[in-house]
Amino acid sequence: MAPSRVAAPVLAAFVPGLLAAQPALRGRAYDTYTQAPLAGVTVTPAGGSPVVTDRDGRFSVPCAAPVALTFRRLGYEPLRAEAAACSDFVQAGLTPGAQSLNEVAIVETRESPGAAGVSQPLSVSTVTRQELRRGSGVFPEEALDLVPGVRFERRTMAGGQRITIRGYGNRSNFDGSGYKAYLNGIPLTDAEGITVLDDVDFASLGRVDVVRGPASSLFGAGIGGVVNLYTLRPDRPGTTAEQEVLAGQDGLVRSDSRLTHSTGGSNLVLNYGRQRYDSYRIHSGSRKDFATFVGDFRPSERRTISTFLSYANSRDDRAGQLDSAQFFGRRDAGEAPYLANDAHVNLESFRAGVTHGYRVSDAVETVATAYYSGGSREDVFAAGVNPKSAQTFGARAVFNTRFLPAALGGRPITGVTGGEFEKTNAFVKGYRLTNKVLGAPTNDTESSTMQYNVFSQWDVGLPADVALTVGASVNFIEYALLDRLANASNPTRKPITGRKTYDPVVIPRVALRRTFGDAFSVYGTVSQGFTPATSSDAVIQFTGQANEGIKPERGTLYEVGSKGNLFGRRLGYQLALFDLRVSDKLTTQSVFDATGSALYSFTVNAGDQSNRGAELALAYALVERPGGAVASLRPFLSYTYSDFTYTDFKSDANGNARTVDYGGNRVVGVPRHVVAGGVDLGVRGGGYGSVTVERRGAVPLTYDNRHEAPAYTLLNAKVGAARDFRNVRVDAYVGGQNLTGGLYYTMAFLNGNYAAASPAVFLPGPYDARFYAGVKLGLLR
User: Fold this and answer.
1) 3-state secondary structure of 204
2) Which of 186, 561, 627, 678 is placed for a possible disulfide with 371 were both Cys, Cβ 3.0 to 4.6 Å?
C-alpha cells in the first residue's frame, strides 16, 4: 500500500484531537453603559474566522497568542482589542454609536438585549453620544426634542430645567414631576417625586434612555415614564487625555478636561467641566462647574463593580418672564421685582453611588446599588428668598432570573424581582425680600419623606414567537412635616406640622408581543402608573392638619405598537398608538369666608383627563460606505400627535357657583402636532455634519383654552472634522442655532391669571441665529 494512502486515514483520525487540543481564547462582550452582555457581536481574530457571541455575550476563538480581535455589532462602534496570552479572559466593552432606531435598548436588567428594542413591548428611545452632539452639546433640547413625545424645557439659560414625557410632568412651573430620572443608576428624583436637573452635567453625557409611559412595575412612582442618563465612557482601549473648548455668542464658553483609561478589566473617566454664559437676555447669566468620576470594574468573569462621584456648583440668574407684548415684540426685558432682588438660584450638590453585580449562575444574577446625594439651594425670587438643604439616600436591589423549563419546550422564562428604598430629609427656610433687603421669616420647616417599593416582572416565551409580560409593584409613601415657626413666640401662626402615611399602591402591567425574527415586532400593553402628592400637598398648611382625603394621581395606559429594522436593517422604525387615562388629577381647592373672600387653599383630587396620541420615528441608512467619498448618510424623522383633553376636570372641588368645568378642553402645555427630523452626514477623511429641524404646534396656556403660545420652527446645523494623527486626536467644528431667526420659547408658564393685565409667562429663546465653534484635542496612548 502506498505511504500516502496510509497517512491520510491516520491524519484524519488525529486532526480532531489536535484541533481540540489547540488553546482557545475566551471572553465576553458587553455594553459599556449598562454593563449588560451583548449577544450577536461578531468577533474576528486577526487572520482567523469570525464567531458570534451568545445570549450571555460569551465567545471562544482558537488562540495563538498574541491575538488581535475586532468586535462589531450594528448600533455600536467597532472595537479592537488584543490578548497577550491565551489564558486571558477578554472583557470587551462596546460603545453605542451610529445606529438604527432599535439597535440599542434600555436595559433595566443585566439580561442581553438580544434583538434589542425590537423585542421590548413598550415605547423606548435611546439617544447616543453622537446624537447628543448633533448640536453644541450644552443645551439638551437640541437632542431630546427630536425624540417623539419628549420635550426638554428650561426657565433660564441653563437652569429651571425639566423634561415632559407625553405632556406629563408640567404640573407646576418649577422643576419636574411625574417621571423618574436616574444618573448612572442614582435617582435624580427625590422621595417626594421632584426631579431637579440643574446640577446635571449634560455636556458630559454619553447616552440617554427614555421610556415613554408608566414603568411603575419596575421603577415605582411616575406616570410619565423613566429617563436614564449615563455619563460618558471610554470609546477605545488605553489611556486618553482630552481637552475640549467651545465658544459662542453671548459669552458662551464651555471647557472640558478629561482623562479616560480602559483595559479589559476596568473603565475609568475623570472629567472637569467649566461653563459660562452671559446670555442673550438681561440678568440671565449662568455659571456652572462640574467634576465627575466614573469607575467600572470587572474583577472576574462573574463580578462587576461600578462607582460614581459627582460635584456641581452653579449660579443661574433670573430675569423673570415676558408678557405677550414683550415676547411678540422681541424685547430684551425682565420683571422689575426679579431685577430689584437680583433673583437667582445658587446650587451646590454632591452625589455618590456604587453598584455591584454578580452572576451567581447562568440562571441568576444580582445587581445592587447604594447611593447618597446632598446639597444646598438658595432660591431668590420676586418676593423672597428660600434657602434649602436636603439629603437623599437609598438603595435598590434586583434579582435577574432565567429558566428554560422543559414543559414549555425550552422557551425561556425571565424575571426581574427586587425593591427600592429612598428617603429625603429637607430643611427649608423662607424670608421676605424687597430690593435685596431681608424681611420677616415666612417659613422654617423640616420634612422627612420615604418612598419604597417591591416589584416583580416576568416574561414568558409562548409558541409562535409570542411572549407574555406580567408584572406589578407595591408602593409605600410616608411624609412627616415639622413647622419650627409655630411656637410660643409666634402665637398667631397656624402650624403646618403633620404626618401622612398613604395606603399601599399596587401597580400592575401586562403586555403581549409577537416577534418576526429580528426584523420587526408588534405588541400591545396595558400598564398603570401613579404620581404621589408632595409633602406640602399632604398637609393643609393654613390649618396644620393632615390632608386626609388626598390620593396619588393614577394613570392607566393602553398602547399598541410596532418596531423593527427592515430592508437589510437599513430602515429602523417605531410606531406607537396610545391612550393614557389619568384620574385623580391634583388640583387646588379654595376655602372662602361668609363674604366670599378666599381664606386659604389646599390640594385635592378633582379631575380626570384622556391623553390619546400617536408617535412615529424613522431612521434610514441611505448610504453606508466606509471609505467612500460619502461614508454615511442617514436621514431621520419623528412625528408626535397629541389629542389630550380634560374629561372630568374642574377648577376646584367646591361644587359651587365659582367652580368651572373644563371638560372637553385641550390639556394645557401640549401641542397637537410636533414634527422633527434631519440628516447626519459622514464623509471621507473624518468630516461630518448634521442638520435638524423642529416644528412645534401652538400650545394652550390656560384651562379655558382662551390663551395659547404660538407655533414655531427651529433650524440648527453643525459641521466638523475629526482625525487621528498617530497618537493625537483632533476634532474641530462650527454650528448654528435658530438659523432662520424664528420666534420661540424655552418654557411658558401655565394657567396664568389673565383677569387683569396680560401676565408674564414666556421665557424666550434667542431672537436671532446664534453661532458657536469648538475644538477637541486628545493624546492617545
Assistant:
1) helix
2) 186
Q: Which residues pair with 219 in a beta bridge?
A: none
Look at residue 162 in the predicted model and tell me its pLDDT.
92
Comparing CA positions, the residue from 394, 446, 397 lying closest to residue 417 is 397
Q: Which three cell numbers stand for residue 46?
A: 486577526
Domain range summary for the chain, segments of one domain joined by +: 227-780
99 alpha carbon, distance to own chain's centre: 19
Judge residue 599's burial from the number of C-beta atoms within 10 Å of its C-beta, 0-12 exposed, 13-18 middle, 19 or more buried. exposed
Least confident of 115-124, 417-426, 577-586, 608-617: 115-124
pLDDT at 403 over 80: yes
CA distance 74 to 77: 8
pLDDT digits (tens, 9 = 90+) for 622-655: 998 888 899 999 999 999 999 999 998 887 777 7
The CATH architecture that domain 227-780 belongs to is Beta Barrel (2.40)
- What pairs with residue 609 in β-bridges? 582, 646
Q: Is the peptide bond before 552 cis (omega within 30 degrees of 0)?
A: no
Distance in angstroms (rounded) separating the CA atoms of residues 667 and 647: 10
Q: Using CA atoms of 319, 321, 326, 328 in order, give the dihedral in degrees to the nearest 10.
A: 130
Higher pLDDT, 683 or 106: 683
For the stretch 1-39, pLDDT in tens is 444 444 444 444 444 444 445 678 898 998 888 888 888
Is residue 386 within 8 A of residue 376, CB to CB? The reply is: no
- Residue 219 DSSP SS3: helix
